[in-house]
Design a protein that fits this description.
By secondary structure, the chain is α/β, with parallel strands linked by helices. The chain is 38% helix and 23% strand. Helix 10 links the parallel strand 9 and strand 10. Helix 1 packs across helix 4. The longest helix is centred in the N-terminal third of the chain and has 23 residues. The two termini are 29 Å apart. The relative contact order is 0.17. Pfam families: MR_MLE_C, MR_MLE_N. InterPro entries: Enolase-like_C_sf (IPR036849), Enolase-like_N (IPR029017), Enolase_C-like (IPR029065), Mandel_Rmase/mucon_lact_enz_CS (IPR018110), Mandelate_racemase_C (IPR013342), Mandelate_racemase_N_dom (IPR013341), RHMD-like (IPR046945).
Length: 383
């Protein structure tokens, strides 16, 4: 973490839930999203300095509004008016202070996600104060661009979507599988045959299979040369299942449904994952994800941040990846999402297989664009 002083005191919190209906639902092996949600938040200190963050809200369908209320009604009292030495201190203290509250209601995930959004906003505010892009605040050696790949590609629509993503500047593509055990392998192989030199193909099963089903898929797609298979089995499957699959022909990736430094330490110690994929808006924010990223690299694995949400979290993911270094890839969902594109459109950031970071201070975000105001479903503030 940076050695520069970053004390702050939050005087005001604002939060918005937004939803945009989509013509083509986003399908995964575990369910379908019929709209694109997001939770954006803004913090402000007494002098008017501000920072923006994002809270995971993709699932369940009622998640966005719930997380706004959770932030304002149950977590804000732990934040407002307190002096923090830096965002990492706030992240750690809020994680400890909300532990019993999360146990009481059986909802550790939403608490973690709200804290992650607050952490992102605090880091954005700190970087703005120093006049630096967030990546440069986190590391003076941060890159100004990171490799990128297109994700969210349903296997049944892969040919057309990959062609469009290629034209938009992507050179890596991740297809969604786990829908049909009989036909999925052949479809993946066909996708691999359409790749151009220098391009890569990945697959994501979203925890769809048992160990035996995953073994069958991996053996069937050997000739596809997949860069990785993501979440072929449940993230809480027995260690032995992950170790068994790691012996096969495709590198394993996971992490979006893992939370906490202890759990990531266990996963890294197990050695089954080649690619480790925490989500900046689901757990950890910048503080937790940067620590996991650096530990991942130190142990010889590859950090590739997971992301599926609005534009603020995507930009934050790019900055953490740039600060961490390594050979990781930034995930960019290419399904239609105005809540992403109004702030972080691929047409503005992606060129020749790379995401190019903005040189503006912090995350480079000034506010919620006017075209999104009609999609706000709930707005609350306190302080």
């Amino acid at each position: 973490m940076p050695e520069t002083a970053m004390p702050f005191r939050i005087a005001r919190i604002q939060a918005w839930s937004l939803r945009v209906p989509v013509r083509t639902p986003v399908a995964t092996s575990f369910g379908v999203m019929h709209n694109r949600p997001a939770v954006f938040l803004r913090i402000e200190d007494a002098a008017g300095a501000a920072g923006w963050g994002e809270v995971f809200a993709n699932w369940p369908a009622a998640g966005a509004e719930h997380r706004v209320n959770l932030l304002i009604d149950d977590i804000a009292d732990l934040v407002l008016g307190r002096e923090w030495n830096d965002p990492a201190e706030m992240f750690g203290e809020l994680s400890r202070a909300t532990h019993i509250r999360a146990l009481q209601c059986g909802e550790p995930g939403p608490f973690r996600q709200v804290i992650a959004g607050l952490d992102i906003a605090a880091w954005d505010m700190a970087a703005r104060r120093h006049g630096l892009p967030l990546a440069k605040l986190l590391s003076s050696e941060a890159a100004d661009r990171v490799p990128v790949y297109a994700s969210g590609i349903h296997i049944d629509a892969a040919a057309a979507v990959i062609a469009a993503a290629r034209a938009a500047g992507f050179r890596g593509f991740k297809v969604k599988v786990g829908f049909d055990r009989t036909s999925d392998p052949a479809k993946v192989i066909e996708c691999s045959r359409q790749l151009l030199p220098g391009e890569s193909l990945y697959a994501d099963a979203n925890q769809a299979w048992t160990r035996e089903e995953a073994r069958h898929f991996l053996k069937a797609v050997t000739e596809a040369g997949l860069g990785w298979i993501e979440e072929p089995i449940a993230c809480d499957a027995p260690d032995g299942d992950w170790i068994d699959l790691a012996r096969l022909n495709v590198p394993l990736a996971a992490g979006e449904n893992i939370a906490g430094t202890d759990d990531f330490d266990h996963v890294l110690s197990l050695g089954a994952l080649r690619f480790v994929q925490p989500d900046v808006c689901k757990w950890g924010g910048v503080s937790g994800n940067l620590a996991v990223a650096r530990d991942t690299l130190r142990r010889g694995h590859i950090y590739c941040p997971h992301f599926l949400g609005g534009g603020i979290g995507l930009i934050a993911s790019a900055h953490v990846l740039a600060a961490a270094g390594g050979a990781g890839l930034l995930e960019v969902d290419v399904n239609p999402n105005p809540l992403r594109d109004a702030l972080a459109s691929s047409s503005d950031f992606v060129r020749d297989g790379y995401w190019h970071l903005s040189p503006r201070p912090g995350l480079g975000i000034d506010g919620i664009p006017a075209e999104l105001h009609d999609h706000v479903t709930l707005w609350r503030e306190t302080g």
